[in-house]
Amino acid sequence: MRPLPKAVTGTLPEGPAYYVDPSKGDDTQPGTREKPWKSLKHGTRQLKAGETLVLRAGTYYERVSLTRSGTEEKPITITSHPGELAVIDGGLREFLEEPAKSWEPFAGGAEGEYVSTKSYLHLDDRKPPRQFLPASWEPMWGIEDERPLVLGNFAGSMVPLHGYRTVADLRATNELWKGDKKDMRDDGLYCGPGMWFNRETGRIHIRLAHHQLEGLGDRAYRGETDPRKTASRDRSRIWR
């Protein structure tokens, strides 16, 4: 169980301040405390040096790029409202809010394998690489198509879901490394609850099967295996 963020008390920086509220705001409003904006993306684009953007409590399902800069003397500040907790979640909100409608059993897959009810082909939209970073080694080995594009975690504990490179690993019953890479490619290696993205269909596959290794003890996963039935604290948060 990982510690979850908590609201903190404090004071806002001096200077002009604008407000964003994901539930009560409207981006056509002036962004004041009484009439806040709705989206973080809109709010960040209005900021100038020395100004503060105050986020009211709630979850912001947005992928935000910061395009404004402050100065050493007049920094730009983005902060939660004192005593409130604002969460920026760039994930796919349907998996957290409506898991029963987001997953369905996958016919012909492994026991306990589910697949997303929608297709997310856009997750594979990538520009051709112009340079390779030291950690981006997949293209060098000709396995760029195995690079995980979808990741996630259990929403209530922040424990990550494993990002599987191959469907063989996701579906494996084996949990031991017992050969060379070629052998393991055929047998697969199950590493616990996780996901695999099918680039051909755009569907996300998930499997929450229990661990079988006795040596894991109380660290073995023993939670719900049907992602549609997970309690709110165990629901899957999915992002790319």
Automatic annotation (TrEMBL):
<keyword id="KW-0732">Signal</keyword>
<dbReference type="InterPro" id="IPR012334">
    <property type="entry name" value="Pectin_lyas_fold"/>
</dbReference>
<feature type="compositionally biased region" description="Basic and acidic residues">
    <location>
        <begin position="23"/>
        <end position="37"/>
    </location>
</feature>
<keyword id="KW-0964">Secreted</keyword>
<feature type="region of interest" description="Disordered">
    <location>
        <begin position="1"/>
        <end position="41"/>
    </location>
</feature>
<dbReference type="InterPro" id="IPR052052">
    <property type="entry name" value="Polysaccharide_Lyase_9"/>
</dbReference>
<feature type="region of interest" description="Disordered">
    <location>
        <begin position="220"/>
        <end position="240"/>
    </location>
</feature>
<dbReference type="GO" id="GO:0005576">
    <property type="term" value="C:extracellular region"/>
</dbReference>
<protein>
    <recommendedName>
        <fullName>DUF1565 domain-containing protein</fullName>
    </recommendedName>
</protein>
<dbReference type="GO" id="GO:0016837">
    <property type="term" value="F:carbon-oxygen lyase activity, acting on polysaccharides"/>
</dbReference>
<dbReference type="InterPro" id="IPR011050">
    <property type="entry name" value="Pectin_lyase_fold/virulence"/>
</dbReference>
